[in-house]
Automatic annotation (TrEMBL):
Keywords: Membrane, Transmembrane, Transmembrane helix. It is a multi-pass membrane protein. It comes from Eragrostis curvula (weeping love grass). Pfam families: PTR2. The chain crosses the membrane at residues 58-78, 84-105, 179-198, 204-230, 367-387, 407-426, 447-466, 486-509, 530-553. The keyword Cytoplasm does not apply. GO terms for molecular function: transmembrane transporter activity. It is found in: Membrane. Belongs to the major facilitator superfamily. Proton-dependent oligopeptide transporter (POT/PTR) (TC 2.A.17) family. This is Major facilitator superfamily (MFS) profile domain-containing protein. CDD domains: MFS_NPF1_2. GO terms for cellular component: membrane.
């Protein structure tokens, strides 16, 4: 047996494998670096260069992040059914490079620079329509780029180990996922430290030129590494089969399914043994039920043509896909609370950002570094160090299922919002004491007070995001690997839309009758602490909903073998 395993190892093709992983990780890692760097400071860029209000700038950021999160679901479908993952990623990298180039040009070309008063006639406070078109076009190309890179990178990495089998494949995939999680945190760390520092220290021209250089380089590397990749052809039938099951089940809605399995036959793949579908969502079982009519001599199957019958495997794939929707919907609020932390940059901009007694000043956009470090440490050390240590001191095996990880992530998101509310209330109180309620100025309060809520946000990602990825990959059909990450980004997109609506509603309701709303441009004049508390309250309600969903969720069985007597 050992010799056979060695032969299988030798026969593995020269393409794919571990040699491709650095390039694949670099594709999404660079996208994350650039996206995080832009998102971290774009509010400041819009408020100072385009003279937008803080709430308006936040809405622009929400809209961009929503588009970058919604479109990956389309990218997953296009990748899995039409273009394949390599071509989708390649085109997306080109789109992302164009987006960064346009954003850089808004700082370089005089006619594109908002607030350029060189001609003496243009208002410094009102960007022209053309300038806004170029700005928003850059966001559009960045969103299109994200739509192809985000859902496909990890699935493309899994494709590289398709020839592997057994324990060898399990070990390779474990390494891949570990590096993927580390890259998630590492890319954000680089962006909010180095790139944000460059933006803050050397200005927007250098700050946006570096992301452009990064994306141009990784786009070239992806093409150079093309001969090394295993390029799995798209399977057009994967998504079509899901809709076929739904169509056939509706078509056969008049058929009654017997409670007992005696005498009931289901259509299944000939390569498999006799199978029955699971009892969950029994209505869908009508799609694979074989209808028969009997005479004196024999029993004849009369709906076995492909157009009117599905296999048990097809039915179970659709059930698996539908089963994730309740849990997925419960994680939207977790992403909502994370998005609500975008005002943290504006808070840091009003606070003392010096480190101790040194002259070094933390850029406002880099305050999230505590979130990133927390995520990197926990996700990178969880399986290798933390779990073995806990098992050693407790003397028992400790296993956190993806569902439990998501629940823990939700609790940390609530803690993050509550902490943010308390810190903002204290910051505002200090600002009023200094007479800054109606004026701008630096509050005599260290920006490091924002670290605790950032740490809770990092814990939210380390448990919630990682738990989601593991959950989707375990439950969804293997032929729909790109959908796994696309679902997580879709939840983020919906959270951005929800955050936009909440901001608008809060401003409208609390600003009635000429009163100052909770979210004015001047943070000291408003009540952003109330906004954070509102998010925490929504998180508590959502956690109760998650508990109900997890209680009723059953781990889907891909196949249920029949026990014929």
């Amino acid at each position: 047996m050992e010799s056979t395993q060695r032969e299988e190892h030798v026969r593995l093709p020269s393409k794919g494998g571990s040699q491709t992983i650095p390039f694949i990780i670099a594709n999404e890692g660079c996208e994350r670096i650039v996206n995080a760097a832009i998102s971290a400071n774009i509010i400041i860029y819009l408020t100072k260069e385009y003279k937008m209000g803080s709430a308006t700038s936040a809405l622009v950021l929400f809209a961009y992040q929503a588009a970058a999160s919604f479109l990956p679901i389309l990218g997953a479908v296009v990748s899995d059914t039409l273009l394949g993952r390599f071509l989708t990623i390649t085109l997306a990298l080109f789109a992302y490079t164009i987006g960064t180039a346009l954003l850089w040009l808004t700082t370089m070309v005089p006619k594109l620079v908002a607030g350029d008063c060189g001609n003496g006639h243009q208002s410094c406070h009102s960007p022209t329509t053309f300038q806004l078109v170029v700005l928003f076009s850059s966001f559009a190309f960045l969103s299109i780029g994200s739509s192809g890179i985000r859902p496909c990178s990890l699935a493309f990495g899994v494709d590289q180990f398709a020839p592997y089998n057994g324990a060898q494949k399990d070990r390779a995939l474990k390494v891949l996922f570990s590096w993927y999680y580390i890259s998630m945190g590492g890319s954000n760390f680089i962006s909010i430290t180095l790139l944000v520092y460059l933006q803050d220290k050397f200005g927007w021209k250098i700050g946006f030129a570096v992301p452009l250089a990064i994306m141009a380089l990784v786009t070239i590397l992806n093409i150079v590494a093309s001969p090394l990749y295993i390029k799995v052809k798209p399977q057009k039938s994967s998504w079509a089969s899901l809709f076929q099951v739904l169509y056939v089940a509706i078509k056969n809605r008049h058929i009654e399914i017997p409670e007992a399995c005696d005498g009931v036959q289901y259509h299944h793949n000939p390569r498999e043994s006799a199978l029955f579908p699971s009892s969950k969502l029994r209505f869908l079982n009508k799609a694979c039920l074989l209808q028969t009519r009997a005479d004196n001599s024999n029993t004849e199957v009369f709906n076995a043509n492909r157009g009117s019958i599905c296999t048990v495997e097809q039915v179970e794939d659709l059930k698996s896909t539908l089963s994730v929707i309740p849990i997925w919907s419960a994680m939207i609020t977790c992403a909502l609370i994370q998005q609500g932390q975008s005002f943290r940059v504006l808070q840091a901009d009003t606070m003392d950002r010096h480190v101790g007694i040194t002259k070094f000043k933390i850029p406002a956009g880099s305050i999230a570094v505590f979130e990133v470090i927390t995520f990197m440490l926990l996700s990178g050390c969880y399986d290798r160090y933390i779990i073995p240590f806990l098992q050693k001191i407790t003397g028992r095996e400790i296993v956190l299922t993806p569902m439990k990880k998501m629940g823990i992530g939700l609790m940390f998101s609530i803690s993050s919002a509550l902490t943010a509310s308390v810190v903002e209330a204290f910051r505002r109180k200090q600002a009023i004491k200094q007479g800054l309620q109606e004026a701008d100025g630096t509050v005599n309060m260290s920006a490091l007070w924002l670290a605790p809520q950032s740490i809770f946000s990092g814990l939210t990602g380390a448990f919630g995001s990682v738990g989601q990825i593991e959950f989707y990959y375990a439950v969804l059909p293997k032929t729909m690997g790109s959908l796994a990450l696309a679902l997580m980004f879709l939840a983020t997109g919906i959270a951005n839309i929800e955050a936009t609506i909440i901001v608008k509603v809060v401003k409208a309701v609390t600003g009635r009758g000429g009163r100052v709303s909770w979210l004015p441009d001047n943070l000291n004049h408003g009540h952003y602490d109330y906004y954070y508390f509102l998010l925490a309250l929504q998180g508590v309600i959502n956690f109760i909903y998650f508990l109900f969903c997890s209680y009723w969720f059953e781990e889907p069985k891909q196949i249920v073998e029949s026990s014929e007597d």
